[in-house]
# Entry
Amino acid sequence: MAQLKPFQAKHWLALLTVLFVIVLIAHLAIIASAAGQFSIKKTAVTAAFTTRMVELPTVVPVVQKTPDLVSPQKQPPKVVKPKPAPKPSPVLAPKSAPAWLPAPVETAAATLAPLLAPEIAPPPEPPPPAPEEASTPMAESVQPTPTPTPTPSPATAEAGLPAPAFTALRSGRHTYKVIVSKKGNPIQGEARLTWQQDGEKYALELSISAPIEVLNYKSSGTLTTQGLMPLDFYDKTVFKSTVAAHFVYAQNKITFSTTPNETGLIPGAQDRNSILMQIAGLLAADPARYTPGTTFSIQIVNAREADPWLFTVNEPETLNLETGSQIAWRLTRNPRREFDRKIELWFAPAMNYLPVRYRQTESNGDYQDMAWRSTQVLPNALMR
# Structure
């Protein structure tokens, strides 16, 4: 290889130096340009971080975050700023409820009050009755008996006891042996007591046939929970025409076919015929009510007059009937005046308190005595 001459060597050295300087300046320019670009970008990022909305209530405490996590484009206002809670509705939660709007708590307490103890939720006051109910007496709204409405007997009112219970005996035809004594001469005959009832009405007939006395009593009326309510009573003897008495409950009076005079109707009144089945039904319904020594008064009506009879319950007795012995309760009505009759009635518990004996003694000693013989069961219906 040929060696360079001194002049040529210097020439190449100068050229390399120039190239080195040019390359160095170019690198410095590139470095300066890169430094300037980095400074502008950093300033822009810092400005964006400085001006973000930090006053929003839902933003978590400020924590140093990288620029890409705090970019405003990634935090929409709807997510950062929730809507305020709605105000309470004045209809659902009024400060003072109007009169027509019941409080839910009070309504629930009123509904559950009957199921809770009194000290936890006392029962509410009952609502006032409707105008049409307020004017109706309570007795009429709960009265179980058919029209006309019965009322307690005088004995019940005087003793302050509840109204007596009554159980009607089933229908049947009962025969009796009769002894009629006139002026000390007893004569035997026969009697028949026919009792019919259909649960609402009744018919009762007593026929007595003896050589010296023939009579016929008829009674009809309605059944109630407190006993018989006679409407008509008829009395027929062999030598006299029929006479009658009528019960007018709407006017609280009794009228007679033989006289224009009227008599006041006492609640629980019975006629000479119906008294037999009335007492039988009272004893059958509540025998414990009529212990020995008990007394009660019933107005008794015949075809010409009405008079209160006072009955006394006596100790049970044993009767020797044709079919055998029977224990029976004896009730007596003692005379109050000079010519009053003495009435004795016997009712057998073993026969559902059927009247098994009836004795009527006059003030002169004459008497009429009936003793039970047999019974024929009849359907519970009124046979015309």
In short: The chain has a mean pLDDT of 76. The first strand starts at residue 172 and ends at 182.
